[in-house]
Automatic annotation (TrEMBL):
GTP 2 binds at residues 205-212, 252-256, 317-320. Pfam families: KH_dom-like, MMR_HSR1. Belongs to the TRAFAC class TrmE-Era-EngA-EngB-Septin-like GTPase superfamily. EngA (Der) GTPase family. This is GTPase Der. It comes from Streptomyces thermolineatus.
């Protein structure tokens, strides 16, 4: 019951989508009964969110599409999170943390007739540390006599308190103008899917592993150069290549085609180029020369893709050159040096002979699917509930931290937030991550799990 109380299951898809939709996300946070839902309704111009006089009422939906002066955004009402299982402070802090994670800007609603409470102050601290833009709504200022109450909220240190009566509409226009100023434009880069564009691949690996050979092999004469920047060989070039019946965009291929001569700083520039390609891509195909020992440079390149949160496929090239002995040692090197990416699909290819090159596309598709996986909150919590019951955290100093609730805050890659009653040891966190993978797959994608401790 505790786990359900934190966030109703109905909101699941919307919450996890919130951070990654094409529209910027505005979260409305604040203590129970300050008028968040009333404000949301006011902004939407209709009575869609349920407003109740008592705190703790679970609402049907929490994410709405809204617009103001022609600008569209997503509006998240965290009112439904106000459950008293953990106390109001914990619930409100959770809202704030969600808002910090998933929202592009935050409206903090304070009841001006009550003034700033300790809970308000605590939330302000969290919000301020996050660096997210915050607009302060001094609510329940129904008439001019309330203006002084609103002004008192300057004390919170969040800048100008905007006096508003969510109930009557007073001041909401000015508030929304301030919100739009704070809210960034829709994220500039929306990923390929949904926008209909080709998926973006970065083909990366240290010099001489066979990147340009592989590119030539898979593309043949079909490649189309896109985004060429005239007259410069330094600039990135993307190429559209048809593979397995689909068109893919290989990003920054200029660096692949140009032979990198050994010179001072070459490694540095190669690594900058790799980082830039990874940044632009959705999936990284990391090429490794299987005929040689896996090097620190190989693992560093893999880490770049993982740390950037990209889907990852590992291709072992020059397979035509492997004898029995090398194969044996290769497997041992993989076990030793690449444990942290055991989840990445693997293909053994030869850019020279074309061996298994056709397996690249299925591996890429698997990785992208893992990258986009979304676990419903209900399923996640029943899984966590069983897991925690069967494998409780070890008792430390007489206390036993428990996972109270979890939610997937985003995809591409999957990001999870676990709310726990105490600090979770690293070993236990790794255990949870491992079990999450066993249960839900996530092949080909890094996953991020963060833990929020409720004291
Ligand atoms: P939430 O739980 O924080 O979302 O708050 P609600 O939107 O449910 O509002 C709580 C109570 O405050 C309700 O009875 C509202 O009618 C009332 N309320 C909300 N905004 C205002 C306002 O601007 N002025 C006055 N007087 N009451 C308000
Ligand atoms: P890049 O620097 O990663 O783009 O690597 P290249 O594609 O230029 O390849 C470096 C060298 O490895 C060239 O001499 C290629 O002919 C050779 N090479 C690439 N792929 C293979 C392969 O699958 N098998 C063998 N035997 N040689 C390869």
């Amino acid at each position: 019951a505790e786990q359900e109380g934190f966030a109703p299951e109905e909101i699941e898809g919307e919450l996890s989508a919130a951070g990654h939709g094409p529209l910027p996300v505005l979260a409305v946070v604040g203590r129970p009964n300050v008028g968040k839902s009333t404000l949301v309704n006011r902004i939407l111009g209709r009575r869609e969110a349920v407003v109740e006089d008592r705190p703790g009422v679970t609402r049907d939906r929490v994410t709405y599409e809204a617009d103001w002066n022609g600008r569209r955004f997503k509006l998240v009402d965290t009112g439904g999170w106000e459950q008293d299982v953990l106390g109001i402070d914990a619930a409100v802090a959770a809202q704030a943390e969600f808002a910090i994670d998933a929202a592009d800007a935050v409206v903090l609603v304070v009841d001006a007739t009550v003034g700033a409470t300790d809970t308000d102050e605590a939330v302000v601290k969290l919000l301020r540390r996050s660096g997210k833009p915050v607009v302060l709504c001094a609510n329940k200022v129904d008439g001019p006599s309330g203006e002084a109450d609103a002004a008192a909220l300057w004390n919170l240190g969040l800048g100008e308190p905007h006096p508003v009566s969510a109930l009557h509409g007073r001041g909401t226009g000015d508030l929304l103008d301030a919100v739009l100023d704070a809210l960034p434009e829709a994220p500039a880069q929306t990923f390929g899917q949904g926008t209909g564009g080709p998926r973006r691949i970065a083909l990366i690996g240290r010099p001489n592993v066979g990147k340009s050979s592989l590119l030539n092999k898979v593309a043949g004469e079909d490649r189309v150069v896109v985004d060429p920047l005239a007259g410069t060989t330094r600039d990135p070039v993307d190429e559209l290549i048809e593979l397995g019946g689909k068109t893919w965009k290989f990003v920054d291929t200029a660096g692949i085609r140009r032979r990198v001569h050994l010179q001072e700083g070459a490694d540095y520039y190669a690594s900058l180029r790799t980082a830039a390609a990874v940044e632009k891509a959705e999936v990284a195909v990391v090429l490794i020369d299987a005929s040689e020992s896996i090097s620190v440079q190989d693992t560093r390149i893999i880490s770049m893709a993982v740390d950037a949160g990209r889907a990852v496929v590992i291709a072992y090239n020059k397979w035509d050159q492997l004898d029995e002995e090398r194969r044996f040692y290769l497997e041992r090197e993989i076990e030793q040096d690449l444990v942290q990416v055991q989840w990445a699909p693997r293909v053994n290819v030869s850019a020279m002979t074309g061996r298994h090159v056709e397996k690249l596309v299925p591996a890429i598709e698997t990785a992208l699917a893992g990258w986009e996986t979304r676990v419903p909150t209900g399923r996640l919590n029943s899984f966590l509930g069983e897991l925690v019951a069967a494998h409780p955290h070890p008792i430390r100093g007489g206390k036993q931290p428990r996972i109270l609730f979890g939610t997937q805050a985003g995809t591409r890659p999957p990001r999870f937030v676990l709310f726990a009653s105490g600090f979770l040891e690293a070993g236990y966190r790794r255990f949870i991550e491992r079990r999450l993978r066993e249960e839900f797959g996530f092949e080909g994608t890094p996953i991020q799990v963060s833990v929020r401790v409720r004291e």
